[in-house]
Amino acid sequence: MLTLLPAVAAAGAGGTPAVIAHRGASGYLPEHTLEAYARAIDMGADFIEPDLVFTKDGVLVARHNRWLSLSTDVADRPEFADRRVIKPGKAEPDWYAEDFTFAELRTLRARQAFPGRSKTDDGTFLIPRLEEILELARDARVGVYPEAKAPAALAALGHDFAEPLLDALGRYGFGPGGLPVFIQSFDPGFLRSLRNRTRIPLMMLVYGVAGSESVSLDQAAEFADGVAPAKALLIDPQGADTGYVRRAHELGLLVHPYTFRDDLVGTGFADIDAELRAFLALGIDGLFTDFPDTAVAVRGAR
Ligand code: G3P
Ligand code: CA
Fold this sequence. Notes:
This protein is an alpha/beta fold. It has a single domain, classed as TIM Barrel (Alpha-Beta Barrel), CATH 3.20.20. Helices cover 27% and strands 16% of the residues. The chain contains eleven helices and 15 strands. A hairpin with a 5-residue loop joins strand 3 and strand 4. Helix 2 packs parallel to helix 4 and helix 10 crosses helix 11. The longest helix has 11 residues. It is globular, with a radius of gyration of 18 Å. It starts with 5 loop residues before the first helix and ends with a helix. SN-glycerol-3-phosphate (G3P) binds next to loops.
């Protein structure tokens, strides 16, 4: 277990659980846009979460996937028809951020990627670069929670996250003694590589179900300050506490489960308020939600 930094201690560890706006207030606005992040801040989120990928010219931009067809209007842009390709990991051809310069990406417009949500704002918002997001968060005095997406695959393309990510966070005042920040990834090797390069708290994303986690708590405790587990690892399908939070805390690990959604409530819960209350009752240190306003309200009503 690594000593928690003052910034982290003020950001949910052992105190008030942090509300982490998952892709911004993505329940209301197209994800990973400055508008969605700003809406989350207005709703009282403690952190905004940018998933990060690279452009061809090495700019870190906020997208959940490297491929663009779901969250942008690229498929309607004939000027980019020749960029549609098939790459490992996705059977269908698509357009990939790493095949576009940042300037080209800026000609695209964001779309609501989640089914059933308002598409009123589709075609309006731009794809932001990391520096813009950091400036927004810094000026609002809220934390950031960047996720390095597919670090190994992007490194194979010549794009390493560590240098540009740590440099940008430092330049905008996020980190030890500054504004709160967590760096997260599904790739344990990537987080291990960061451990000796920064004192910024590292969060190991964990998927799976109880008993078959992608990374064990003992493994995470070797290099991370906490885990960001899928909800299913904390409460089983019968609604029982799996003991995951207790075991993580015994190892000195923070616990930030993902993802809470008002329009996709977890199995067995009457509504999102009941689900949030159940997870908060486990003693979690924060949570990822598409609807930060709801989480702030339920947290406050405890
Ligand atoms: O980073 C927390 C959560 O967002 C992980 O899943 O696929 O939504 O990035 P994903
Ligand atoms: Ca994420």
